[in-house]
Structure formats: C-alpha cells, structure tokens
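Thread: Newbie trying to understand structure tokens

Hi all, I'm a second-year student working on a class project, and my supervisor (Dr. K.) asked me to get a predicted structure for one chain before our next meeting. I've only ever worked with sequences, so writing a 3D structure as a token string is new to me. If someone could post the tokens and maybe explain what I'm looking at, I'd be very grateful. Here's the chain:
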Amino acid sequence: MLADFSQASLWLALASITFNPTAWNVAARREHHTRWLTNLCGGARQGCYAIAVAIFSMGILRDALYNQALNDQPSAPWLDNSLVRLVAALLFISGMTFVTTSTYALGITGTFLGDYFGILMKERVTGFPFNVLDNPMYVGSTLSFLGTALWHAKPAGLLIAVYVWLVYWVALQFEGPFTAMIYENASKNVKSPELGQKKKKKL
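---
Reply by user tm_fold:
Sure, no problem. This is what the structure looks like when written as tokens:
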C-alpha cells in the first residue's frame, strides 16, 4: 500500500496546506481594499508584520502536521536506500536555499505581502534566486516537501508534495495578476513633474 487514506493526520495536513495560502490571500486582499489590518495594528508596517507572524506560525503548524502525516504513513522499501536519501538531501537543501535567499532578497515586507499594505518595492528584484526562478519561494517550499518525503521513504509524502505545488499554482493565478494590478495602479498615480507644473500664460 502506497498511502493510507484512512489516517486523519493525512487529511489534516492536506487541510492545512490548502488553508494557509487561501487565508493569507483573503486577508491580504481585504487589507488592500479596506485597510482593516492597518487600522487594527496602528499602521501599514505593523499590519504587515502581524500578517508575517501569522503566516510564519501557520507554516510551522503545517510542517508539524505534514511530519505527523508522514509518520502515520507506510514506508516503501524501494525508496529506502542511500541514493534516494542523497537526492532527498539535495532537494531539501536546494528548497531551503531558495526560500531563505528569497526572503533575504525581498525583506520582511516584500516577502509577506507588503505591497497589499501599500508598502511597495522600489524596483523589481532580479538577483538570485529570482534570476533563475520566477517563484523561488513556492518552488523551494515544494522541493522541501518532496525532499522530506523521499528522506523518510514515504510515497504518500510524494503525493502530498504534488498537492502542495498544485495549491501554490492555484494561489499564483490569483496573486500574480492582483500584485501586478497594485503596481500598475501605483504607477498611474505617480504624476510626472511636467503634469504638476502650471502652464505659463502668454504675455
């Protein structure tokens, strides 16, 4: 048996994986339209930090649920060997590298939806890892899930990793266009110096 679907821990892990990006997208969009977190926390930056803490905390819970789900799933002998563990380690290290370097490049507000709070990046980040991947944080997270599943020789974990990427892909269909809209509207609101000058009257 590759996966034991009767285990409640499996469904709890899948629920957490689904809930997290859904929750932060809903909360961030509401913030953009109503400034509810900005008003609640006393400022845009404070609101962004609050959602950052929430996202980080939900991520820790999700990872704990995932590891518990793996513990409750059957192992596969054909995955339990040194070569697979080497691949697993490389995938996990690569994934965490993408996640941590993305966070470093973007900063806290850039990583945790600061643009929804009106805290916009001055310019597009083009350095590593964004020069090799369009969405390194989501790719990195997926690789970490995949590496963990392989390390523990759990076929169910491979299925979960595929589901993680599916959830992230769906989230990107909403996040990408919405973020682009935020920056497009911001650029339209920036007046050029010429527009701010009054025309001189002809003598």
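A couple of things are worth pointing out once you decode it. The radius of gyration is 21 Å. Confidence is low (pLDDT under 50) at residues 192-203. Feel free to ask follow-ups in this thread.
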